[in-house]
Amino acid sequence: MKAFWIPAIIFLAMIIAVLAGGGCRSKTGGTASKAKAGTIASEGEVWTGWNQYQIPDYTEEGQEIRYGYELIANTSYYLGPKGTVAALTNGMNCQNCHLKGGTVPFGNNFGKVFATYPLYRARNNGIQDIYERVNDCFQRSLNGEKLDTASREMQAIYAYIKWVGDGVPKGKVFAGTSIMKLPFMNRAADPRRGQSVYQVKCVSCHGADGNGAPNPEGTGYLYPPLWGNHSFNDGAGLFRLGSMAGFIKNNMPLGTTYRDPQLTDEEAWDIAAYINSHARPLFDQHEDWKILSKKPLDAPYGPYIDSFSQEQHKYGPYGPIAIAQAAAKSRVETIK
Ligand code: HEC
Ligand code: HEC
Q1: What are the C-alpha distances in Å from 95 to residues 64, 69, 119, 142?
Q2: Phi-psi bin for 59: left (phi > 0), alpha (psi -120 to 50), beta?
Q3: Residue to mutate (ligand 2; options 51, 179, 252; most atoms within 8 A of CB)
Q4: In its keyword annotation, does this UniProt entry include Nucleotide-binding (predicted)?
Q5: Which among 165, 192, 211 is the end of a domain?
Q6: Do 57 and 21 share a domain, yes or no?
Q7: Can you give the pLDDT of all 336 residues of the chain as single tens digits?
Q8: 172 in a domain, yes or no?
Q9: Pocket of ligand 1, beta carbon within 6 A
Q10: Threshold 0.85, pTM exceeds
Q11: How many domains, in total, are found in the chain?
């Protein structure tokens, strides 16, 4: 059944793509020959990726890209606790956080990855390539183990990320290719206020205990966990309040897009505080952020370049920290 539908859907998608795009797949001034790549569609300057049906999987290269997509979308099936390839991860999928295969504007997409890596990253105190960045998410966001760089799986993930970002010129930063930064509130984010909104807008899928819900096959989640033993660990990006707030504001409840958010900024900050106030697996982070002046102000663990408490770094208010850090950084610059 499935085997019959997939080619039919691809064929339909191709017809639609040709009709909609007049055969020209690049809306940002690329030439038709560049259009063989699977990407670049932008609305104004906001980047939107191609969808999986545009993967050219009639070629060998395309099949590798397709496998990479599969691993991003159904990570747990292949690499989760009961993974068919190996048991390396916690049961979540990359796509739980990198929505629709990492193609959604402000949905934590992969648009700029191929154009920007290798990249200096302050969290790791050095230059990181795409493999290392992916493994960061394996170890932190999937609370798992590293994937061997030479493995068929890592090579396929690489091929997919390359395909998604192909055609994004080096140095060009499209809007929507990072998690949106929300304006700071004047107060600290409040887990109790967050809880009451959570009960209305999130609990139906993610549960009162934050554990989400498994899929019927037991190979992963229908609704992924937000906290607890099976969720991302405390070294993951979403454990920073600003990242969590920006992600949920533009993407949750499920079906939300950045054009039609259903939470106010305050609600997003408060729910983020509620989610991140719960226990989750621990990750050894003592090698992170060695250069304190480059540590983000919402990093939930010290030491810090300023004298604000860990509590304030975790929940805000961030305005005073931002002012103090700007002053401290300019002192550091002067000493240099
Ligand atoms: C629990 C959520 C979560 C999961 C699951 C997750 N990631 Fe991430 N990932 C993040 C966050 C948060 C960031 C940082 C985004 C930012 O700072 O704008 C990130 C960043 C990345 C980046 C760099 C993006 C950029 O633009 O620099 C890559 C590549 C990446 N993840 C790949 C993966 C892969 C591959 C998987 C699955 C093996 C995965 N991630 C699973 C949350 C997640
Ligand atoms: C209708 C069900 C539904 C509702 C309601 C919903 N979510 Fe989700 N949420 C999902 C699904 C499904 C995913 C994974 C997306 C995917 O894999 O495509 C997800 C992913 C997430 C993630 C990233 C993955 C993780 O487990 O950490 C966060 C954070 C999140 N949701 C928070 C929220 C918050 C906060 C609300 C309420 C404002 C909410 N969700 C409401 C279904 C829902």
Answers
A1: 18, 9, 23, 11
A2: beta
A3: 252
A4: no
A5: 165
A6: yes
A7: 344 455 555 454 544 443 443 333 333 333 323 333 334 444 458 998 888 899 998 999 999 999 999 999 999 999 999 999 999 999 999 999 999 999 999 999 999 999 999 999 999 999 999 999 999 999 999 999 999 999 999 999 999 999 999 889 987 889 999 999 999 999 999 999 999 999 999 999 999 999 999 999 999 999 999 999 999 999 999 999 999 999 999 999 999 999 999 999 999 999 999 999 999 999 999 999 999 999 999 999 999 999 999 999 999 999 999 999 888 878 766 665
A8: no
A9: 72, 75, 92, 94, 96-98, 108, 110, 112-113, 133-134, 137-138, 141-142, 157, 161, 178-179, 232, 236-238, 243
A10: yes
A11: 2
List the helix and strand counts (H, then E) for the chain: 14, 6
Residue 265's domain spans which residues?
A: 179-336
Q: Is residue 203 within 8 Å of residue 334, measured between CB atoms? A: no
* Residue 313 amino acid letter: H
